[in-house]
Amino acid sequence: MGNKNKKTVSPVKSSGLSTFAGVFTPSILTILGVIMYLRFGWVVGNVGLLGSLIIVSLATSITFLTSLSLAAIATDQQVKIGGAYYMISRSLGIESGGAVGISLYLAQALSVSMYTVGFAESIVEVFPVLNEKLIAVSAILFVAGVALVSAKAASRVQYFILIAIGISLISLIFGSPIESTEIELWGASPENSVPFWVVFAVFFPAVTGIDVGVNMSGDLKDAGKSIPKGTFLAVGVGYVVYMVLPVILATRADAISLVEDPMIMRRIAFWGDAILIGVWGATLSSALGSTMAAPRVLQALARDGVLPRSMARLGKGSGKENLPRMGTIFTLIFTITAVLLGDLNIIAPILTMFFLTAYGVLNISAGVENILKSPSFRPRFKVHWFFSLLGAAGCISAMILINPLATFIAAIFVFGIFFWIKRRNLEKTWGGVGRGIRLSLIRSSLMQLGEVSDPKNWRPHFLVLSGAPMNRWHLIAMANSFVQEKAIMTVATILTEKDIHKKRLIELERHTREFLSKKGIYSLVRIVPAANPYIGAKTMVDHYGLGSLAPNTIILGDTQEESHLPDYCDMIHYFYRSQRNIMIFDMEDDYEANPKQKIDLWWGGLKLNGALMIVMAHLLQRSVQWSDADLTIKMVVRNEAAKIRTEKNLIEMIEKMRSNASYKFIIAGDRNFPEILAESSRKADLVFLGLKEPDDEYVDYYKKLKANTSSLKNKIFVLAGEDISFEDVLF
Question: Which residue in 362, 298, 364 sits closest to 330, CA to CA?
Answer without folding.
Answer: 298
